[in-house]
Amino acid sequence: MSEFTQKRITDAEALDLLQNMPTAELMAQADAIRKARHGNKTYYVHSHNLNPTNLCVVKCNLCSFWRPEGAKDAYITTLDDARKNLERAQNWNLTDLHIVGGMIPELDIEYYEKLFSLSREMLPGVLLQGMTAVEIHWIAGNAGLSIRETLERLKASGFGSISGGGAEIFHADIRKKIATTKILAQQWLDVHREAHKLGIPTNATMLFGHIEKDWHLIDHLSRLRELQDETGGFQAAIPLPFQTNGTSLGLKYGPSGDRQVRVAAITRIYLDNFPHVRMLVNYMDRKLLGVLTHSGVDDIGGTSLEERIAKEGGAPQSQKFFTAEEMEDFLSNLGHTPVLTNSVYAQVDGQPEVKAFPAAAVGSRRWKTILDRVEAGGRITAEDAAIIYNEAPFQELGRVANIRRCKAVPGDLATYVFDKNLNTTNVCVVDCKFCAFYTKPESGKAYARSPDEIVAEVKQAAEAGATQILIQGGLNPDLKIDYYEACLSGIRDNVDIWIHSLSPTEIEFIAAMEHISIKECLQRLKDAGLQSLPGGGAEILVDDIRKQISPKKTRSKAWLDLMEDAHGIGMKTTATMVYGFGETTEQRIEHLMKVRDLQDRTGGFTAFIPWSFSPDMTDLDCPRFQNGVDYLRLIAMARIILDNVPHLQAGWVTEGPDVSQLALQFGADDYGGVLMTEEVVSATGVNYQVDEDLVLHLIREAGWIPAQRTTQYDTIKVYDDKSVAKA
Ligand code: SF4
């Protein structure tokens, strides 16, 4: 099987790609290289972390792990402590032990020799990866030894490879600001050179998303590529997203999802002589990590049990994996072949071969012909949509969807709305199996807000800047039409806010209780102040699915007819989709086609909003976890199919801030609501949070100009602060 040879690009070409190539295309380019190198194999390790001390004489500005002498949570791990720690880890079937920590005189070369010998004795066969080039340089200096002598002594005690930490950014201008007293770039590179000469494989990190500029990243990568040309000793390049917590750099945000994908992709494309690109799960949201494994990343790091450094930096602990099985499921769900290995990519018994380069299977490319037609402006049929949905690379769908987006919503704005979701009641008699929000009338948790309470909360929201109120709730037989009229007119008469509220399901229920027609019910609610209708309750507009997930709920035709009636009385609405109930591709397309057909007739839909089903706390199992790639594929398909619905909203509530930011590169033109409160999705335990400032940051980092909009997509304010220099 011929070894893959990757084309070498220049620094200028790399900078141009990083700064100018649309994200979906950059992902596709990097993914093609990753597939040529590893097929769909994705590597992971089952690792344990031992951080000997959090005291450190170096005190980097970028570090939230170190503690000053005397701090109550400062600690030093004695060899006895280490023995107890390792005893606990003996039955964990680890592949790696990762030893890294602060630098203090007490932890000298003798300490580390004993620690590695102890680890080798207690965890035979486990790769002892550890210590950064910074630590090695430091203990060598303290012992009056050369780097080579230090490495030889550590190797003799079981030390297997150098982790890539301490590289940060090599360029002196940045290094002196983020790691003032840390060793210089050349010293870091020299330690790795010595290690490579001694046959000790190493990894190399690059800390990004702080104060560096794009060209500092390319400079960093070029120095790594140069040393790799010389020694070939590096195994993996590890782009590390900067974590802001507890650091003294005064930065509010680390790198966003789009930024992480772009840096990972350029690392893969530029480092043509590095076998692997690794990004660490314990630094990010799982949905984003899934997308990264299709953007050049072939290794997701490890379980990193008891890892403290990223944790102190504020990395999301809820996203960590704790077992190799969990990581295997995660990778299989993404269509990868999971390969358990260690940090020098040694073969682990019972695992697929690590180093094979299977030729990527070339499927039919009929999707390309169809996508070319779509790119040229053609309208897609349901049959063709199913082909590209199932067969086209999602990055290619994203590329074309982005082109369609720019035609549908010209200009470089990406919008958001400042809104609040407010629920009238959690009492509902419809018992949808996918709903974790509702409760029975007789339950102790039942509530129903009075019209006065509703108006008071809406007033507060408007005072806080909300321009839209979305009131919805369960189908509560105690709440008649006069209740809703009182809520709506109370808001209309007392608060300057747009009332985008209720859902077809609620209106159908109210009309039935009042024994009046849908049209009459809509007209009365409109007369009371209802201005537009959110597209809730659509889930999947295919009755075979609806009968399974919500047997007592509005059928597809009734939902569509009600929206047609609303459009008929001049009321604009949105349309939604909740996917991931086990419906087929064809059923998802049937849903989108029904929305498109109605739009052809009425033009009443302002936007489409899809989000994935969150199964926790519901009565419905999730046939398959809907990952970030599934979401971006669906967003792109929505833009391609709904050629007559102007706006496409990203869905951070279920997909998280980072993957929904990427949706702005896959056809979405709107980031949705800042949402002061939300109770329905958070009832399932999915609890992402954003605020207006974060939304501005995410839209800017995605390369768009943020603009606050009204419910009807008129622009309220453009944050065209060109002062935000291009990174
Ligand atoms: S989704 Fe709506 S209609 Fe269904 S149970 Fe929940 S609150 Fe009731």
Task: Give a structural overview.
The structure is a single chain. This protein has 727 residues and is an alpha/beta fold. The protein has two domains: 11-340, TIM Barrel (Alpha-Beta Barrel), CATH 3.20.20; 412-726, TIM Barrel. It is 42% helix and 12% strand. The protein is built from 26 helices and 19 strands. A four-stranded mixed sheet has the order 17-10-18-19. α17 (451-463) links the parallel β11 and β12 (468-472). The chain starts with 10 loop residues before the first helix and ends in a 9-residue tail after the last strand. Bound molecules: iron/sulfur cluster.
Which key features would you list for this structure?
alpha/beta, TIM Barrel, 3-stranded parallel β-sheet, 26 helices, 19 strands, elongated, disordered C terminus, binds iron/sulfur cluster
In the CATH hierarchy, the architecture of the largest domain is Alpha-Beta Barrel
Number of strands: 19
Determine the N-to-C terminus distance: 41 Å
Helix vs. strand class? alpha/beta
Shape descriptor reads elongated
Strand order, main sheet: write it out.
17-10-18-19
**Total helix count?**
26
Mean pLDDT: 93
Give the low-pLDDT segments.
723-727
Largest sheet data: 4 strands, mixed
Helix share bin: 40-55%
In short, what is this structure?
This protein is of the alpha/beta class.
Give a topology summary.
Blueprint: H1 11-20, H2 23-38, E1 41-45, E2 47-50, H3 79-89, E3 96-99, H4 109-122, E4 127-130, H5 133-143, H6 147-156, H7 172-178, H8 185-197, E5 202-208, H9 214-231, E6 234-241, H10 257-270, E7 276-277, H11 286-292, E8 299-302, H12 309-312, H13 324-333, E9 337-340, H14 366-375, H15 382-391, H16 394-408, E10 413-417, E11 419-423, H17 451-463, E12 468-472, H18 481-494, E13 498-499, H19 504-514, H20 518-528, H21 543-549, H22 556-568, E14 573-579, H23 585-602, E15 605-612, H24 628-641, E16 647-648, H25 652-662, E17 670-673, H26 692-701, E18 705-709, E19 715-718
Parallel strand pairs: 1-8, 1-9, 2-3, 3-4, 5-6, 6-7, 10-17, 10-18, 11-12, 12-13, 14-15, 15-16
Antiparallel strand pairs: 18-19
The structure holds iron/sulfur cluster.
